[in-house]
Design brief:
Strand order of the largest sheet of chain B: 5-4-6-7-8
Oligomer: heterodimer
Radius of gyration of chain B: 16 Å
CATH topology of the largest domain in chain B: Beta-Lactamase
Distance between the termini of chain B: 32 Å
Mean pLDDT of chain A: 92
Helix content of chain A: 40-55%
Number of domains of chain B: 2
Largest sheet of chain B: 5 strands, antiparallel
Radius of gyration of chain A: 13 Å
Largest interface: A-B, 33 and 36 residues
CATH class of the largest domain in chain B: Alpha Beta
Low-confidence stretches of chain A: none
Number of strands of chain A: 1
Chain lengths: 55, 146
């Protein structure tokens, strides 16, 4: 696909573990996008690590 | 008015109606000038909080919500439905709203309909598999494709 590698394969449970911290507080006043380091922490919290998840 | 007021207004309007308000509508709703609202839209776009149709200030995405129909629908327990930009975002709609819901999506491998159910804050067991094609560092090279 457009010169990309095979990508990342993981479970829906991991996707839900990603969705909760990523989007769960968007209706809170003062919400901020994660910094790259914070985002990598969220990925890791869902068990998603490795070069694919580096920012 | 802060950019956060604009961001929250966009999300609340998308939740309420499914449509993203124009700069003019937002300016009128929040009692600010159109130029101030436009500048806030631009900053939110530059900061990757919202995504416009190319060359416009028409909001296409205000994550996790999509302002246009997609194959990724969050169907909430209250009977309302909202479009997510992808299956991650559709689950994010459920997380953001903090209620039970289902994500109706489509298997990108076999085109079969697929439902992910969230009940009581937990994802119901499923044998589906998630595939991300684009590495995280490249998501914003073309966020619509991602």
């Amino acid at each position: 696909m457009r010169g990309l590698d095979r990508g990342a394969v993981f479970t829906p449970e991991q996707l839900w573990a990603l969705a909760k911290p990523w989007h769960g507080k968007r209706l809170d006043r003062g919400w901020k996008r994660f910094t790259p380091a914070e985002a990598e922490g969220v990925f890791a919290g869902a068990g998603l690590t490795g070069p694919f998840w580096h920012l | 008015m802060t950019d956060d007021d604009i961001r929250l207004h966009l999300l609340r309007e998308l939740i309420a109606s499914g449509a993203a308000p124009s700069v003019g509508d937002t300016a009128a709703a929040l009692g600010v000038s159109a130029s101030d609202a436009a500048a806030a839209y631009d900053r939110l776009g530059a900061n990757r909080v919202i995504v416009f149709r190319p060359g416009t200030r028409d909001v296409l995405m205000a994550a996790p919500l999509s302002a246009v129909p997609t194959p990724h629908v969050a169907r909430m327990a209250d009977g309302r439905s909202h479009y997510g930009n992808c299956v991650w975002d559709a689950l994010g709609v459920i997380a953001m709203l903090g209620r039970d819901g289902d994500v109706d999506t489509v298997c990108t491998d076999c085109d079969a309909p697929l439902t992910l159910a969230v009940r009581g804050g937990a994802l119901a067991p499923t044998d589906a598999v998630v595939h991300f094609a684009v590495p995280a560092a490249r998501w914003w090279e073309n966020i619509v494709f991602t």
